[in-house]
Amino acid sequence: MNMTAHYIGTPEKLSQSEIYQCRIYIRKHRGKRVISFHNFFIDLEALSGLFNLDCSNCHLAHFHSCCEKGRPLAPGKETIKQLTPHVETIVERYLTSSHEKQWRKEGFIERSEKTDYYDNFSLCGEDCFFYAKEQEHFCSIHRYAIEQQLPLTSLKPMACSMYPIDLIEIDGCILITALHPETLSFCRWGEEYYKDFLCANVQYREDSMNGNQESRENMRQSIPESIFRLDHYKPAYVWEKETIEHFCGKEVYEWIDTKIKENDYFQ
Ligand code: SF4
């Protein structure tokens, strides 16, 4: 069989092993938790997993966030093209003089062995070029798009916008899934988010609230009760309503919502 698959919204490719694992996963769960609807495979179980995207407080729970010490999945030519005219304002408005100096000298794109030879955002220090962390901690592209009332999907890398769900085109269909213990072998988010971050692991938050928090390399010991609140965890598909509607259509979002509620996946 021809091994064709790719992550939607980034030119970065699945490895042959990830394609194999993805195909096995669909075969194993099809008709049960992975249901066909039009040309989509919809992973109801993974999409109903609970997340809390309390991103602005991430630094209070973790030593480094997902935007620190790294860069996003490659954004794709169209996003870079649409973002480029806005970069000067973003730098001036939200970022530091180091960013400005670097941007004037080298621009904001790097293509090297470190980026697997994809065009990707440069790092400033060790962090994604667009991560602002001087006073508040936020994605400067995201804030700019909201303030300018521009569609987020046109400026921010799609991979960043869609966390924690994943869209994978495979064998002529699109798998709509999410970060989940059973998708770690092929999902674009891999293991790190699930194993490291409170947003993706409600059990970690329950443990820390109950005083049973295990020591983890990237997790602080005293996490304020007011952040990553247990009652703010919501299913992955609810967080990503806009992304699903934008790329798959409103009908698909409504179908997912109805099916998940019918199956009583969460209450
Ligand atoms: S583009 Fe924004 S969300 Fe994506 S890694 Fe950079 S700072 Fe984070």
* SSE string, helices as H and strands as E: EHEEHEHHHHEEEEEEHHHEEHHEHHH
Looking at how many chains there are and whether they match, the oligomeric state comes to single chain
What Rg, in angstroms, do the CA atoms define?
19 Å
Q: What share of residues are in beta strands?
A: 5-15%
Structural class: alpha+beta
Helix content: 25-40%
Distance between the termini: 41 Å
Mean pLDDT level: 93
Regions with pLDDT < 50 over 5+ consecutive residues? Answer: none
The biggest beta sheet reads: 5 strands, mixed
Number of strands: 13
Number of domain units: 2
Shape category: globular
Number of distinct helices: 14
* List of distinct ligands in this structure: iron/sulfur cluster
Largest sheet, spatial ordering of strands: 1-11-12-3-2
Characterization of this structure:
This protein is of the alpha+beta class and 267 residues long. The chain folds into 2 domains: 5-56 and 163-266, no CATH class; 68-160, no CATH class. Helix content is 39%, strand content 15%. The protein contains 14 helices and 13 strands. The protein has helices spanning 16-29, 44-47, 58-61, 77-83, 87-94, 97-106, 140-148, 152-155, 158-162, 192-196, 202-209, 236-239, 241-248, 250-262, and strands at 5-7, 34-37, 40-43, 50-51, 109-110, 120-121, 123-124, 127-128, 131-132, 138-139, 165-170, 173-178, 234-235. The strands form 5 sheets. Strands 1-11-12-3-2 form a 5-stranded mixed β-sheet. The protein starts with a strand and ends in a 5-residue tail after the last helix. It binds iron/sulfur cluster.
